[in-house]
Amino acid sequence: MTTKRTLIAAMAAMFLTGVTATAAMAEKIIIGTFGTPTPMQAAIAAGAIDKATGMEIEWRKFASGAEVIAAMASGDLKVSEIGSSPLAIGASQGVDYQLFGISDVIGAAEALIARDGAGITKVEDLKGKKVAVPLGSTAHYSLMGAIKNAGLKPGDVEVIGMKPDQITAAWDQGQIDATFIWEPARGKAMKTGKMIMGANQVAGAPTFDGWVVNTGFAKANPEFMTKFLKAIDAANAAYNSNPDAWTADSAPVKAIAERTGSPAAEVPAALKDYKFPSLATMASAEWLGGGNQANMLATAKFLMENKRVDAVLDDYSKFVNADYLAAAMK
Fold first, then answer.
1. Torsion over CA of 303, 306, 309 and 314, rounded to 10 degrees?
2. Which of 31, 90, 190, 254 gets the most CB atoms within 10 Å of its CB?
3. CA gap 309, 104 in Å, rounded
């Protein structure tokens, strides 16, 4: 009985502590995500992040970084995933947000896929071809980098801006010759196409998906920020500790497939095309410890050359905040 009473008292104390912490934060928050297969998707399906943060979370799926920028600028969205290219676009436009973590390093998860029979075996063969890509996305940034590295001019290739679902429809109808895209559109294109190049093979154009937060919200809710990062880190660690266990018939992969629309059989390979950094890696000099600030400036300059932004800032440091990472690692 004594043990039982002690347990009940401890549970009550934990509950009251959780209520107090939650009361200091907003009761509900909308968090933006992409439909890419990541360990986080399994954690979302299990309700692990909601439980860890003590916040009721509405997970809203966005098809592109441009949509994220608009939602963040409107104030409706407080936290979201965003690609490195649209991250630089929004910062250049003065959107009030800060990068506070890395969701994933894209690697080969985004790739240039050429249609079978299109006569494309290398990037140089894109000359005179129709290539679809979501404009302003990390895939667009990689595509333009690949075109430049191949000695082609932007006008040599007919780059068509489309959303992922539009790309799939255009591919099925034979309206495009190639696409630079991510899952699940990538997997669908691969059924009648072949990969020419992954994003990780584009020299000088590293891409990633990061986490951004409205500056005011972050300042008002520092506890949520640290708990959120710890929950994301736990999800990544669950995968990184034993990626081979994430098979098509495993519970996490089935959950990811259900949330993203990717076939479960394709998820394990897709996961291996990404890298999911630890908190310590995120805080390192390569990333939020200095690398991201430099990357944002270089990306913005490239985007201005390609007429995706009107101006480039002298310094992007104010759009990166590693303080919450430091707190989460204590």
1. 50
2. 90
3. 24
DSSP-derived letter for residue 159 is E
Q: Could you tell me where in the chain the CATH 3.40.190.10 domains are found?
A: 2-106+207-328, 108-201
Bond preceding residue 184 cis, omega within 30 of 0: yes
Of 313, 291, 15, 307, which is closest to residue 154 (Cα–Cα)?
307
d(CA 304, CA 86) in angstroms, rounded, equals 12
For 285-299, the pLDDT digits (tens) are 999 999 999 999 999
Nearest one of 318, 315, 235, 314 to 277, comparing CA atoms = 235
The one-letter amino acid at 126 = L
Q: Convert the pLDDT of each residue in 94-121 to its tens digit.
A: 999 999 999 999 989 999 999 999 999 9
**Max avg pLDDT among 9-13, 117-121, 151-155, 182-186:** 117-121
What CATH number belongs to 108-201?
3.40.190.10
* Coil/strand/helix, residue 293: helix
Fold (CATH) for 2-106+207-328: D-Maltodextrin-Binding Protein; domain 2 (3.40.190)
Helix, strand, coil % in the chain, rounded to nearest 5: 50, 20, 30
Alpha helices in 196-317 (DSSP H): 215-220, 222-240, 251-260, 267-272, 279-282, 291-305
Contacts of 92-97 with C-beta under 8 Å, sequence gap 24+, read: 92/300, 92/303, 92/309, 92/310, 92/311, 92/312, 92/313, 93/69, 93/309, 95/69, 96/72, 96/214, 96/215, 96/216, 97/72, 97/212, 97/213, 97/214, 97/215, 97/319
* Whole-number Cα distances in Å, 133 to 17, 138, 155, 284: 48, 10, 15, 31
Task: List, for residues 47-85, the tens digit of each pLDDT value.
Answer: 999 999 999 999 999 988 999 999 999 998 999 999 999
The span from the first CA to the last CA of the chain, in angstroms, equals 37
